[in-house]
Please model this.
Amino acid sequence: MSQLKAALTPARLLDESGRLVRGATAPDAETLLEGYRGLVFARRLNEQAGALVRQGRLAVYPSSRGQEACQVACASVLEEGDWLFPTYRDTAAIVARGVDPVEALTLLRGDWHCGYDPNEHKVAPQATPLATQLLHAVGVGHAARLKGENTVVMALCGDGATSEGDFHEACNFAAVFRVPVVFFVQNNKYAISVPLARQSVAPSLAAKAIGYGMPGIRVDGNDLPALEKVLGEAVARARAGEGPTLVEADTYRIDSHTNADDASRYRADDEVNDWLPRDPLLRVRTYLKAKGTLDDAREQEIADAAEEMAAAVRAGVGAETPVDPEEIFAHVYATPTPQLAEQRAVLRAELEEA
Amino acid sequence: MSTPKMTMAQAINAALRDAIAQDDSVVVFGEDVAQLGGVFRVTDGLHREFGESRVFDTPLAESGIVGMAVGMAMNGMRPVVEMQFDAFAYPAFEQIVSHVAKLGNRTRGKVRLPIVIRIPYAGGIGGVEHHCDSSEAYYAHTPGLTVVAPATNADAYGLLRAAIASPDPVVFLEPKKHYFAKEEVDVSVPVPPIGRAVVRRPGKDATLIAYGPSVPVALAAAAQAATEGRDLGVIDLRSIVPFDDETVCAEVRRTGRAVVVAEAPGFASVASEIAARVGERCFHHLEAPVRRVTGFDVPYPAPKLEHHFLPGVDRILDAVDTLQWEDAA
Ligand SMILES: Cc1ncc(C[n+]2csc(CCOP(=O)(O)OP(=O)(O)O)c2C)c(N)n1
Ligand SMILES: [Mg+2]
Model:
């Protein structure tokens, strides 16, 4: 019964007004301050990327505004050797993991499909085909176990993606093989226009875990310390050889699906407005201010650093970096086939003629 | 009265609306097709007009969508399902290949599946990865599937009506780059049936064979060639399966030269099949080998590189130049 309760009632540490909930152990102030910095960076990245789309510098941007606590927490609970499997919406998490934001935005800028080296930061390429990456995450985790490594894999997906067959297969494989993976579902209530009620009538998404034989935990997705606690415990379980966990974050997609989407066609402004006071950033700020951990000087220092990051993103994304047309042939196989070499020569001749 | 102008999205929308209105067994479902009206607005307004029982969103699962369509068709309905993008149809591949395509044959024709699988298709829209695949070869290679690719908005209307009426399952490939381009469409004028190609431009020197998004590119190449004194004809296949050997071969026998144009990578492609068929059937009429101008054999490139991949006017005219004109004295 307590299993079901954990899967239904979101775990919380900070309430919407930034106060510690009754009976909760206070989070470590310095850790939370670090988290606050992450939130400010993630928010600034979302805003900056949105602006770059409007200027035509990025083709498209799926924003994680409102979900920044999820983005920060899923990266902060990982060790250096762990892996992160993100989706198209998780650029801020990738950056929180240490990937250069300009490299992370290469996909959306339209230069190449994946702009960073997945091995360098142990971050898989952002997955667009929904839920497919969850099985890859299981594979990385299972290989780690077979090789005797103590790697943990953090696998991200959205509420909509939980309807795909691959989600089911990944959960089941992970549970059967006791794979050290954490499935982290950011339930932001929409899959483009389709509301959660059309994805599932299960008591919660976390409750699905029970059917697979793994723990399912629901957590307030706008509560950074609660997320870090729940995800941290799931990572610890995985590392200790106790198998996978399904964590569902109760959160909300504040922006449209992408800039190309018009959310007014399917949801009321009132609904969005109801979520604004639950902002993940404000909550931590209020708490840290009240505690005296975040004074004006520190706040300014963090804001300045975020501004510096945004300036670097503007400069990097805005720079006229040439793309090499011939690169389309370079990586298809480890060694290009004779046919590709021939086709490359055709393109080169065209380019030389032009 | 002048003929109304419609985009291809509107023409498809009109076909769906008319089919739903005229046949109680037609149902439309998929991802984001109801309230949103589809990410390309192809189903705009249909949910409002016909209600949830005729037009509805499903949970997010393509295998589920197509698999459920199989069962609904077994129970007398005519499902028209939408895959959101070409590359997002792949989770449904098992259902399409093992069931949609085969059930009629497995049951000696006792169970027919009048299903239409609509797929926004091909490139040229600057889409990030997985949004621009040309996947026709997978379907065309699967016996049991009818594969249709309209190139004009009038055909989009007429062919979709025919697809919905067909007793067989149809994969209906909608060139995305055409969705928002306006053309005159008179829905009261019938278009040729599925399986018939159309000569879009007669020509006496060589024949360009194209379908879907490559038809306007072939027409542009023919227009350019005309200014250089070469008279190229253009055939729009309209339907890949069934293939109209008759129309294609009649034209090629007349001109003696042919170039096939398609966006998909050329290796083991529909373009290859066309070149082989034309070679076999028209050998004694050909002045030169049939050429293919296709995408390169690489995954669809990122937006900034796609124009290097897509077959364009220059590449088509270069191919035409190689058709051994020096022998034709
Ligand atoms: C297999 C597949 N089908 C359809 C799509 C198109 N698509 C992209 S995002 C999306 C909605 C996903 O919703 P959710 O999983 O809740 O994630 P969110 O976008 O809300 O973060 C859809 C339908 C896709 N990318 N992959
Ligand atoms: Mg969602």
Q: What stands out?
A: Residues 5-184 of chain B form a domain with the Rossmann fold fold (CATH 3.40.50.970). Residues A 89, 128-130, 157-161, 188, 190-192, 253, 257; B 31, 60, 62, 84, 88, 91 surround thiamine diphosphate (ligand 1) (CB under 6 Å). Chain B touches chain A at residues 31-32, 34-37, 39, 57-64, 87-88, 90-91, 126, 128-131, 267, 296-299, 301-305, 308-309, 314-315 (CB under 8 Å). Residues 8-22 of chain B form the longest helix (15 residues).
